[in-house]
Design goal:
Helix content is about 0%, strand content about 40%. It is mostly beta strands. A 7-stranded antiparallel beta sheet has the order 1-12-10-9-8-7-2, with no helix packed on it. Strands 3-4-5-6-11 form a 5-stranded antiparallel beta sheet. Strand 7 and strand 8 form a beta hairpin. The protein is globular, with a radius of gyration of 16 Å.
Length: about 200
């Protein structure tokens, strides 16, 4: 499936359908060993430029989002308003993921790109861990500030039994009360399996 470029947040953030491919984690990748509803900070080899500045570390939440600073929480309940009102910018495939030691987020840096891969992670089906898995990846280019979200395969059958945990919110938000651009059906947009966000030149 190909996803066309859309502006998910506001006019200051460009979205381009570059279409970088999925990169399987290499033998050098490390598991972040995130617990369910867990979070960890990952240090980068170089500062990552983003619309509100630059950061030398990213905060990774098991529930499918990466933030440019600590403080966005670990909620498993995807909600567009909460996404826009987070304290800090975040990149999201926000969902109630059910991570475990065997199905986790893998991290590595290769040639100046930081790769975060949710590898074969299940969702909740009812209040137990489902059997259908998803794999997706966020790619942060440390020199350009572009971010690709690449989907390899996604669970579209499990139904969470936890309140408001079943939906998906996908995209970027600068946080701090960002403007709501309205909804868009990404499945009907076009034909790509990745998006890239770039920070426009000032």
């Amino acid at each position: 499936e190909v996803l066309s470029p859309v502006n998910l947040c506001d006019s200051t953030d460009a979205v381009q359908g570059i279409g970088n491919p999925y990169v399987p984690p290499s033998v050098g990748a490390v598991s972040l060993n995130l617990a369910d509803d867990g979070v960890t900070t990952v240090n980068l080899s170089a500062p990552f430029p983003h619309p509100s500045g630059a950061t030398s570390a990213l905060e990774v939440c098991s529930n499918g989002f990466i933030s440019v600073a600590p403080g966005n929480g670990t909620s498993y309940q995807p909600n567009p308003a909460n996404l826009r009102n987070r304290a800090f910018a975040s990149f999201n495939v926000w969902h109630d993921w059910a991570l475990s030691p065997a199905a986790n987020v893998w991290f590595e840096e290769v040639a100046g790109v930081a790769y975060f891969t949710w590898l074969n992670v299940p969702s909740y089906n009812g209040t137990v861990v489902g059997t259908v898995t998803s794999t997706f990846q966020m790619q942060f280019d440390l020199s350009t500030g572009s971010v690709d979200i690449v989907f390899l395969g996604m669970d579209n059958t499990s139904v969470s039994g936890w309140q408001a945990g079943d939906g998906y919110v996908v995209g970027y938000s600068p946080g701090g009360g960002a403007i709501d651009p309205g909804s868009i059906d990404l499945s009907a947009a076009s034909t790509s399996c990745s998006w890239a966000w770039t920070t426009p030149a000032s």
